[in-house]
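#lab-general

N.A. 3:47 PM
ok so I finally got the sequence cleaned up, no stray characters, all 1387 residues accounted for. can someone with queue access submit it? mine expired

B.Y. 3:52 PM
send it over

N.A. 3:53 PM
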Amino acid sequence: MNRYFLVIACLQLWREVSPVDPLTTWIPLIIALLITALKSAYDDLKRHYNDYKANHKKCHIIKREYLNTVTKNNLENLPIIDIYAKDIVVGDVVVIYENEEIPCDCVQIGSSLPNGVSYLQTANLDGEIDLKDKFTPKTLNSIFCDFLIFTIPLTIRCSHPNAEMYIFDANLEIDQDIYRNVTKNNHQLLTSTQIKNTNLENVTSINVNEDDLLSGVSMNDEQEPHDKLTSTQQTLQNTLQQNTQNTLQQNSMKEENDLVSRFISLSHENLLLQSCHLKNTKYVYGIVVYTGNETKSGMNKSATPTKRAKSDKQIDYISIFVFSFQILLTILFGIISMLNIENFQRNQIWYLQLDSTQKKQWFDPWILYPLRFFLLTTYMIPISLKITIDFMKLFFSLFIEWDLNLYDYGKDLPCVVNNSDIIEDLGCVKFICTDKTGTLTENRMEFRYCSIFGNLVDCSNDQNILQNNLQQKESQLLFFKALSLCHTCKREENKFKSSSPDEEALVKASLQFGNVELLETTYDTYSLLLNKEIKEDFTILNVIKFTSDRKRMTIIVKPLQKNIQNEKIYIFCKGADDVMLQRTNQNDTNIEITKEHLRKFASDGLRTLVIGFKEITPEEYSIFEKELQKTNAITINRNESLQKVYDLIENNFTILGATGIEDKLQEKVPETISFLRQADIRVWMLTGDKFETAKKIGHTCQLLQNEKLIEIDGLSQESIFKSIDNALQNVIHVTSQSNHDPYSVIIKGEVLNLAFEHPLFKQLILHAISVICCRVTPKQKADIVKFVMKETKSITLAIGDGGNDVPMIQAANIGVGISGNEGLQASRSSDFSFGKFKYLLPLLFKHGHLSYYRTSLISQFSFYKNIYLAFLQVLFNVYSGMSGMSIYNEGSLALYNFVFTGIYVFTFVFENYLPVTELLQRPKLYKHSQLGKNFNLFTFLQWFSFAICHAIVTLFFTYYSYFSGPFTFPLGGYSTIDKDYLGHILYTIILLTTICVFLTTCHNYQVINITIIFLTIIGYYIYMAIYSNIMKVFGAFNILSKLPAAKITSSVFNYSMSDPVHYFIVILTVTTCWLIFAIFRYCKKLFLPNLIEKYQLAKILDKNGCNVKKMVEIGGGFYPNSNYGNDKNLAHSGRKGSTHRLWEAHGRGAVTNEEGGWDVIGPSAVAYDEKHKTPKELTIEEIKELIEKWMEAAKRAVKAGFDVIEIHGAHGYLLHNFYSPKSNFRTDEYGGSFENRIRLIIEIAKGIRSVIPQEMPLFTRLSAVDYVEDGWTIKDTIQLSKALKEVGVDLIDCSSGGNVPAKYSPFTHYQVPYAEQVRREANVPSGAVGMIVDPIKANEIIEKGQADLVFIGRESLREPYWPYKAAKKLNYYLPVPPQYSRGFTTN
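B.Y. 4:20 PM
back already:
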């Protein structure tokens, strides 16, 4: 857009073409660009400052010339120098001290701690504060000393720089000949000098390999060494002396062929990553392999995906539309101007004596006039819009971050906005893709169940579960040993620390329930304490860690106890059941019962793990170790090769048992998801859990409710397709989003790829109310999000808490991260982050909804005011000979967008068209913003039409008020006015009209917007007073008079203040324009209201004592006949109007009753006998079908947005055929006693209450009036009312039907005492009909306590009661919940 205005500004420098002073565009453009430049410069300076701090951080390296030259003379001085981080090169040996940040990626070759371990805090990478272990390669650790390791040439081969944080396929080569010589010489040297002040030096070179290796870079030899050692360094040297002597003595005793392997495998466990911090370790040494932006951290700093808000794209489309309109005006007025100019010059401005024969310039008139009109229309696109929206979004982000409703007090964590560009998209979300663990759940694990060798154990009693039976006790002990050994937990000061909450829960459970305590953890040993008496030590031979692809973890250990033979080697493995059960001994008798226990765990919503065990011989382990070493030497495709080696050992396990761990839901997750569903937001849960666990959690968190659940599964494409076809048969019209039964889908990740090949699967899954995808990988999560966005073109939000959720968070239109127990990776990669899932509600329903509304209002109003301004001056050329001249003061033009209209328009950021509490409590209101009802082609055309209409009215009224014509006002003043005076009046009218439109559009008036408008008006008149009198005050030659239009505006303000016509025309024109706007809005709100306007009018009714709700009646109570049709002997009724449209839109079609007028859906209560034209007794099967269809009708009514449901068929022929003893001759459970005769209505009420929200009012219509002659009395109604109250019916509708005995006529007079008796004796709220009762009479009935509700018919609404008239236009229906004091209906 800035390019557009730059082109316009350049064209205005063409003096012959430009109709205005170039400064009118250049000044606003320079201001706009300056503001943008300052913002960008501020951001750039911050980045530059941060880069400077990082690049000039001091680091420690060992000087290169000291490497490979360790002698007795230089042992006294440690050759460590300080350099800047930017000067570190590949091949340097860095020294990192405790609490320092790692300056580059380097391979650890030495540590101050025993066994070569070090501890890093990776919070800068993944947000996790738990310490991570890093290790010196075992071979180097065994020879590490202050000179030996730095004297041997080392060669590292590794891959090119890449972004894989947890993959480092490399190896290190040692020259064994030099190693032997150096070992021998230095051993003699140390013996003779008795090792004083050991020097910590390093020797390395990194050679180039043509395929995949890095090149070594020489250090700058001019670096100055330290003058003396620091006290810390001196202490560290002393601590190594004894270790050095011991190491050399051990090495000298080894045989030559056992000294050191030539190749040493390196992995990510040996790699110290840049930006991490060294903790609990005095120092480490590292060989630099990656620096700068080539480090793992640097390679992951890819640019955040650019996301544009939906409103920004709509503004682009509107700008294109307006630009097209400009071109149209340019062509139209340009052609008219070229055809008319000569005639105009000859006949109307003959007095100028223009020479028509004079040679014209090359651009006159074919370029001149079209360009002039084009430049006149350029003001239609507001130059300040982008800046206004940028600052508006800044305010929106501050509102979010300052909102205490989004503040997590437990974590001391506010909501953070990382991307303010897409805030308004929060109001348009249609799909939410959510992770489960840590997002919906707390990620705090509680050990609930375990299965040990086929025995199910409930661990909820918090007691030790070891059995007295020796055999059982041994098996249980082995199970808990596996839990205590197969993990990566570390014990520090009686606390367990792990990156996985599951592992921590398992280790604690082993102590709590099995008396197996993890006593001590070191680099290569674990110590267990059994029964608080027996200590067992295990050497860790290998650890094969868990990954999302492997879904399992394996540890290989060797016991160290004297009473246990050292030849025993144990393998413990734990993992997902689908992976572990494939790797078990198929002859294991416990497999089937363990599977059954796993299904139980999963059905309870627990996280499951299978524990496996096997024992191998040293020979088997030796074969495995050799293959592992050989594979680890590979630097290309190492991971794939390692998996094949792991498969050699990870098989034929004996199943020790399984575990069930509970991960409790976060606070208010079910309520949050229920609200999201009510707002028609489709929630998809993407989880790695197993099928049964995901299904159980889906029900628990209200993701799965009463709709059908379709399970897609299969082992082959054929079986999967068959599963999909079966699902399609159970869903009607799946290809239409509105005409299908509500359903949800659950599917496994491995099935998903094959399912997409089915031609109708996309429609099936996209039209589901909710979807659960289980056993999915992080890549699949991102692919699913992309699929939803591509196929639906809807705004999709992804929310997660872990690093595995980052791909889907970045792929979605809106990414939300939860700062949880899995670190800050998700929150740092997201657009918004907060502490709990429940904060989605205020983020979407409050901030998203209002931000979308405010953005829509500001954008469209900005176009309106500019089109109004520009189109008026184009129209003015009709009266100026189509000359392409501007009518306005040029200084005022320059100030129009930024000062006179730009400031008060910005106060729309505080606009609320509904109270925030209403937006949060009524999720259905979110549909208004979700569907884009505030910002679309229709709404923009309204504003566009207002601008065009106001421009025509303004010019017409003003021009003909001053110039000759039928509307000239002879009120004195000036009989003729010039262009400048007319321009001043027009500009004043435009300014005041836009202010009136602004105030009419606002729904709440605050001090800030009223004050700014007041200051704007006062400032405008002060500006005109000063600007019009510059020449009088300072003289004609003063520099101020050179300002744009300073001369031509001289005294205009003075004339206007003394001209009565000026005042009259301004008031008349502004009032007329305002009335056009106000009347249109009023009529639209009355006759074509949107969802918000309907609710606003309903609130007006509430204030007048009328609680308006939309009600639907289920089941026809009338006598069925052939006019109503039948379906399987179950008559269906459907009344005309909204009900019929409801059925067409949301379910099976119903026959229309052309004579009816109120809403009834669902089958009639009576079967119809076509042959005898009489009611037919329902069979048991038909009764069940009747109940099912009524329940389906209730679910559709909820989906359609009704607020109240009434079981209408509970009276009429249902009462006649079932309730009354004179008509019920059934001998089954629905006939005979009173309890049997009311069984059907009780079952119906229970069924409908089970499928509708608990807070939704349910009424039942019962009438004793119609059928008292059949033996049914009011006492029976009272007894039935009590029974219905117990099953969840909120109100008894005592309205009568049309078959009223004569003695009870008129029936409306009978309803009130009848309702009062039911209300009093049954102690249940009641209602009465009021077909001929006006609202005032209804109020009296309610206030006397005769009824809780009075139904008012449409024909009873009187003209004076305009709020009720409005309710009639809105097609609203009542009754209301019994807790409301009164209510009316227009049914």
